Amino acid sequence: MISVKTTTAAILVNSKNPLIVDEIELPSILGAGQVLVEVITSGICGAQINEIDAVKGPDKFLPHLLGHEGFARVVEIGPGVITVSPNDFVVMHWRPGSGIQSAPAEYKWRGQRLNSGWVTTFNKHSVVSENRVTKVFPAEHDRNVLPLLGCALTTALGVLEKDAKANFRDSLLIFGGGGVGLALIKIAKLFGIKRITVVDVGEKKLKYATNLGASNVVQFSNKAETLNRLKPIFGEELPTIAVDTTGNIEAIELCYEIISPTGRAILVGVPSVGSHAKIHTLPLHFGKMLKGSHGGDSMPQTDIPILLDYISNGILDFADYPIHKFGLKDVNEAISNLRNGTVGRMIIDCQI
Questions:
Q1: E strands along the chain, which residues?
Q2: What is the set of domains in the chain, with CATH numbers?
Q3: Which of 54, 70, 77, 282 could bond 92 through an S-S bridge, CB–CB 3.0 to 4.6 Å?
């Protein structure tokens, strides 16, 4: 029997509505490959906004839990779990890593079934799949930065390393100065990329992008005007990599159109259902690349330790990365801040 019977969670009950923070019942036992964790901190990603807004279409799993990047302590483990033990600290992530992929946990809320996936982080205790947690040694790391390893940082690393196959000769254009966009600046500098241009609608995000190392910033208005602002920056040396993190159709089209004839356009952001980008496909036959990214094909069991090593050795520094902390009860305020363009990552501290 699980020692923790109930916990507090933020629940998506109806699409396009605020989350409800309430007490929920945990499963009575852990199944094969399941891990019970006490969530310490969780990030809020744009993917959660997409879930709330049902941008991919009607949500068939309501009511359900949310969140896919976090930092937690292991409380109990189910049969077959070997990669973590009770009292280990872990990063929670949505990309599968080492270990068993278990059945998703089934919770109860107000007498009805409450759905979840293989990992949820907007709850003080969570039953997750073994392959959605990776053991870390957190003593020397900021508990508000560790959740970024579950999505923002590992996605940024995978996008550049695996999707774009970036190197120091590349120039990078980023659409969107949110959590992943700012992380891309950090990771690009690791690759030795010196020409980094960021496009966003928000002046504050562009200011932060400059502070983090972007060589040029452009405020997005519409496709035509933004293209006119970008052309003088690049001249004949068009960017070799363009990454869209916004899901905005005009940004996606610009990514593809402005890169060099053999450039790589990588799409991280997800457009709303029914939205369609228009592209001229002929350049694809002559070396131009357009690719949708799935979390950068990140491998958490290898990527998280590497990134932690970089942070430990000062190669990656997050002292200047904007983080805003909220209690779980204030999750809707945090989501509103993200929607309204507050710069950086919104972090839920489940222990306040």
A1: 6-12, 20-25, 34-44, 64-65, 70-77, 89-92, 107-109, 112-114, 125-129, 133-136, 171-175, 195-200, 216-219, 241-244, 264-267, 289-292, 323-327, 345-349
A2: 6-145+321-349 (3.90.180.10), 154-297 (3.40.50.720)
A3: 70
